[in-house]
Amino acid sequence: MRGVLYRVDKAAKQPRPYIDFKALFPRFVAEPSFASGLLALAFDPDYRRNGRFYTIHMEDMTQTTPAAPRSGVMAGLDLSGYAVTAGVPTPSGPAPLIREAVVVEWTSRDRADAFMGQAREILRVQLMNSIHPINDLAFNPAARPGDADWRALYIATGDGGAGEQADIRRLNPQRLDHFGGKIIRIFPDLSIHVATSEVSENGQYRIPRDNPFFATPGARREIWATGMRNPHRMAWDGGRLLAFVIGSNGLVPGPRYETIDLITRGANFAYPLREGPEFKALSPVYGAVPTDNTLPLRISDKVMLDQRVRLRDSALAYKTTVEGNAISNGFVCRGARWPMLKGAVVFGDITSGRIFYARMADLVTATDGKPATLARFGEIRTDLPQLAAKRMQERTSSDSVAGANMAAGRPFRIDMRLATDGAGEIYVLTKSDGMIRLVASVR
Questions:
Q1: Using 50, 70 and 90 to split pLDDT, how confident is the model at 229?
Q2: Which alpha helices (DSSP H) does 319-383 contain, by range?
Q3: How confident is the model over 349-398, as pLDDT tens digits?
């Protein structure tokens, strides 16, 4: 998050700096407690041949310093093909746009300890703040050369907190003229899928013609799915794409749910009118809640098409303050260590550190057009909260913020994420104590 991308030396078991984003990008910004800094990385499916990977980082657009990366910071970096692109704006109402999320393509020439190769800016998106920005990148691992989805990059974008506002910004997750509250789909490589796509406005990527709103007047052609609050992480299993969506913070009356959505072409998950199985309170912006589970296709705050779309329901949801406060990411378990969970979606809660599972078949069945139908899930009981708290106490001074919180008996935030390896085994990452753990067994 603070700006350094590391490469781990497997022999020495030590991380070594690979790219220093903070040193390279003059406007780079990382703010504690916000989704900023260095946000995500994804390898091109053809990485072994082309050496390409993609990153997201946050920049402060209020700075007067030029946004172009500094030359001479990295000896092996070729910036001859780097051009700062025009930022795609997010409707902000009375609020100023103060942040930009930047997607960069890196092409490494070799496997040296420090990056050597070229960098190219793909996309720049203007944001209201550091809340719910562009969060994640993912390629479909099931796609093969010749497939329509081969090397298509899916990008998850949050709503910037717009869905919890009482003014016109609350419309943002439903609007199709920007990227907030959406998942978009592009081809970063300009040389592929030439016959079935068109070059973007900024000239840095291609837009597939089979995207659902490619031919919709006024809509961003990159959009694949819409109507989400904060799809902060994605995961693929075969040809299925899952989004892990963090729920509302209670500023808007109504239930608060953490959800898993099965993403399909053109799907609209109804936020901010609905979250999980229940509709939110009536909004002065939207008026009456629709009773037929459809909404008109909305282009902007003033333009709606004479076309209604059926809302898609979440596959799984849990209520905040019951199982936790914020859903982490998750993966479908394909490893050998957890045979009884093979094929199950394993996910967790960021704050509590609790880990859950649900059968993929149940998620598919629950996506039946009826919001009240949700997949069943169970808990994998671990000693993770105790382990993390103990190590945190050992590492934390009594005069620190974390130490004061623990001394006062305030809830301990584990700050957990999950990861998977090439064999499909699940790892647990906890920011609070700086550990990566492999779950050894499940009984």
A1: very high
A2: 360-366
A3: 998 899 999 999 999 999 999 999 999 999 998 888 888 888 887 876 65
Q: Using an 8 Å Cβ cutoff, are 262 and 246 in contact?
A: no
pLDDT, tens digit (0-9, with 9 covering 90-100), for 320-357:
878 888 999 999 998 888 888 989 999 999 988 999 99
> What beta strand segments (E) does 200-239 contain?
206-208, 223-225, 231-237
Assigned CATH class of 4-314 = mainly beta
Residue 256, C-beta contacts closer than 8 angstroms, at least 6 positions apart: 247, 248, 249, 250, 275, 319, 320, 321
Cβ 67 vs Cβ 82: under 8 Å: no
Q: What is the pLDDT of residue 10?
A: 81
> What's the rounded Cα separation, in Å, for the pair 60 and 67?
9
- Is the Cβ–Cβ distance between 223 and 196 less than 8 Å? no
Which phi and psi angles does 242 have, rounded to 5°?
A: -110, 140
What is the pTM (predicted TM-score) of this model?
0.95
Q: Are 1 and 38 in contact (CB under 8 A)?
A: yes
Segments of the chain assigned to CATH 2.120.10? 4-314
